[in-house]
Every structure is written in structure tokens, then in C-alpha cells.
TrEMBL record:
The gene is prph2b. It holds the Pfam family Tetraspanin. This is Peripherin-2. The keyword Transmembrane applies. It is found in: Membrane. GO terms for cellular component: plasma membrane. InterPro entries: Peripherin/rom-1, Peripherin/rom-1_CS, Peripherin_LEL, Tetraspanin/Peripherin, Tetraspanin_EC2_sf. GO terms for biological process: cell adhesion; visual perception. Belongs to the PRPH2/ROM1 family. The lineage of its organism: Eukaryota, Metazoa, Chordata, Craniata, Vertebrata. The keyword Disulfide bond applies. PROSITE patterns: RDS_ROM1 (PS00930). It is a multi-pass membrane protein. It comes from Betta splendens.
Length: 343
């Protein structure tokens, strides 16, 4: 007995075909959107590649671009089939292709599910890449004359301004590295010399941050030097006063940006899976309703459509039996090849 059978009149078949045609083109639009978001995500990763030590993974954006293109092609084909289904002559040429097409759609849905899962699971990898990359970026901030690091200062400054953040975890990360190049330090100055010599690694460390950490919304002129020295500034206490620099770390800010993007894309892909499933179910009903017409030459006659030709249990058992038979055939072929090799 067929699974979920439905009786169809001519009017119902026409409405189903028209509704499916519209639904397929909505899926095409979703495919274009996924493709566009994949390209946008890839560009956003490339833009800040330096801040990730060029170790960022492009698996998710590449998959999004692929599934976006496949979605456009597969759904445009489905829309064409629905459009031609109202004409028996035109629909007859698509009959032989419907079964492989529906199987391909099932595989495509699995690929969409994998893509959606990766959108959520790969966020941890992005977090780790940002943590390590930003740590090294701050370390190489001063190397404006070193090949390969010439634009690190500009990239990091623009990131701190754009995302309103400072340092990796917070602004104190700048206290632990020498972020001013030696070429801009007057080594004949006793204060500079003492500061360098007092450090075990010979670094010029100070409780200061770059200008890009300044919050322009603060009413007080930016205090970016001697942040922990209360006596260096009038009416100032760094322990209780709200600092006029960004206190949020760039790792948190960038991760929040990328994770929100990946979450949104993941939800969009899940919605697309439901759309694709509805398309598949509708096309199955339409194709079986057209095939079971008592008199194909009389479009007014009734027909019956279904999702599965047999029940779920019977269909599952039949599929499992086919897989077992295929496995046995492969074993027999392998055994025959082994005997031929032995002889």
C-alpha cells in the first residue's frame, strides 16, 4: 500500500504544479543568497588573513559557494519540470530523469546538512585561529620594515578602530610587548636605555597602547600613555575611572562578528533544507499523480499520488536487501579476481 496517498483532480494537479514552480524558484533565490554569502564570508576571511597567521580555514565558504551553485542548477531544473508537467507531451521527456533527479536531491540535502553543521562546529576553529593570530599580530606590530609584515600595523590599527577593540584579550596585552620599533627609540636617552636594560629580554615595554585603541566618544582627551600611572594625569585613577580606550579585546569582537555570520548562514541553510524537502515531496506527488492517470488522453480524469510506492517499513527493508545483494556481488567478484591471480 502506498505511503501517504492523495487523490488528485485536474484542478489539484494544476495548483500543485503552479505552487511547486513558485517554490522551486524561491529555492533558486535561496541558492543565489547562499552563494553570495559564501563569497562574502570568503572575502571577510581573506581581509583579515594576516590577523589569523594565514591559517584560516576556507572549508565553510567554499562549501557554501558549491551548494549555492548546485541549488541554483537543481532547482531551476525542477522548476522547468513543473512548468512542463501540464503538457503531457513535454512531461514525457522528463519521466526517465525524475528518479535519478530525486535521488540526487536526497544527496544534495545531506550535503546541505553537513554544510549547516560545519557552520556551527567550525566556530571553535575560528576562535583558536584568532587567538593565536592576534597574539602574533600584536608581537609583529612594530615590524613595519620587515618583508611580509609591512602592513601588519595598518591592518591591526584599522581592525581596532572598526571593531572598537584593543589588544587580544584586552588593552593590557600591549603592556607585554614592545610595539614601538627600535628605529624610533633614542637609545642615547637615559630613560629609554634604563627601560630597555631593566627588561630581561631587552624590550622597551611601557603601560601604553596605540592610538587606534582610543574611544572617540569619550569626553576626555585620549589617555593612551602611562595608563597605570595616576600621578602622570590630572584627576585620574585607572582603578576606578572609566578608561577612554576600548576595553573589549579584539579576539572577542572578531569572534562575535564571525560567529554571528556563521550562525545566520547556518540557519539559512537549514531553512533551505526544509524548502528542498518540500520541493522533493511535491514533485514526487506530482509525478506519481500524472503517471497514475486512468486515461492519459483525458486530462479531466482523477489520479492518485504518493510519497512512497510502499510503506516506510517495506521500502526500508527493500533498500536494505538491495544493499546486501550489492555487497554479496562485490565479494563474489573480489573472490573471482583473487582466484584468477592465484592461478
Amino acid at each position: 500500500m502506498p505511503f501517504m496517498p492523495v487523490k488528485f483532480t485536474l484542478q489539484k494537479r494544476v495548483k500543485l504544479a503552479q505552487g511547486l514552480w513558485m517554490l522551486y524558484w524561491v529555492s533558486v533565490i535561496m541558492g543565489i543568497l547562499i552563494f553570495s554569502l559564501g563569497i562574502f564570508f570568503k572575502i571577510e576571511l581573506r581581509k583579515r588573513s594576516e590577523l589569523m597567521d594565514n591559517n584560516e580555514s576556507h572549508v565553510v565558504p567554499n562549501l557554501l559557494i558549491l551548494v549555492g551553485l548546485l541549488s541554483c542548477g537543481a532547482n531551476a531544473f525542477g522548476g522547468k519540470v513543473c512548468h512542463d508537467s501540464l503538457d503531457p507531451m513535454k512531461f514525457s521527456k522528463w519521466k526517465s530523469m525524475l528518479k535519478p533527479y530525486l535521488l540526487m536531491c536526497c544527496s544534495f540535502n545531506v550535503l546541505l546538512l553537513v554544510t549547516a553543521l560545519l557552520c556551527f562546529l567550525m566556530q571553535f576553529a575560528v576562535y583558536l585561529t584568532l587567538a593565536e593570530g592576534l597574539k602574533n599580530s600584536i608581537k609583529f606590530y612594530k615590524d613595519t620594515d620587515t618583508p611580509g609584515r609591512c602592513f601588519m600595523k595598518r591592518t591591526l590599527d584599522m581592525t581596532q578602530i572598526e571593531f572598537r577593540c584593543c589588544g587580544n584579550n584586552n588593552f593590557r596585552d600591549w603592556f607585554e610587548v614592545q610595539w614601538i620599533s627600535n628605529r624610533y627609540l633614542d637609545m642615547s636617552n637615559d630613560e629609554v636605555k634604563d627601560r630597555v636594560l631593566s627588561n630581561v629580554e631587552g624590550k622597551y615595554l611601557m603601560d601604553s597602547v596605540p592610538f587606534s585603541c582610543c574611544n572617540p566618544g569619550s569626553p576626555r582627551p585620549c589617555i593612551q600613555h602611562h595608563l597605570t600611572n595616576n600621578s602622570a594625569h590630572y584627576d585620574y585613577d585607572h582603578r576606578i575611572e572609566e578608561l577612554n580606550i576600548w576595553t573589549r579585546g579584539c579576539r572577542e569582537a572578531l569572534f562575535s562578528y564571525y560567529s554571528s555570520m556563521m550562525n545566520s548562514i547556518g540557519v539559512l541553510v537549514i531553512v533551505t533544507i526544509f524548502l528542498e524537502s518540500a520541493d522533493m515531496a511535491g514533485l514526487k506527488y506530482l509525478s506519481t499523480a500524472l503517471e497514475t492517470m486512468a486515461d492519459p488522453e483525458n486530462p479531466e480524469c482523477e489520479s492518485e499520488g504518493w510519497l512512497l510506492e510502499k510503506g516506510v517499513k517495506e521500502t526500508f527493508s527493500e533498500g536494505l536487501a538491495k544493499l546486501k545483494l550489492l555487497g554479496k556481488k562485490n565479494q563474489v567478484e573480489e573472490g573471482g579476481d583473487a582466484q584468477e591471480t592465484a592461478t
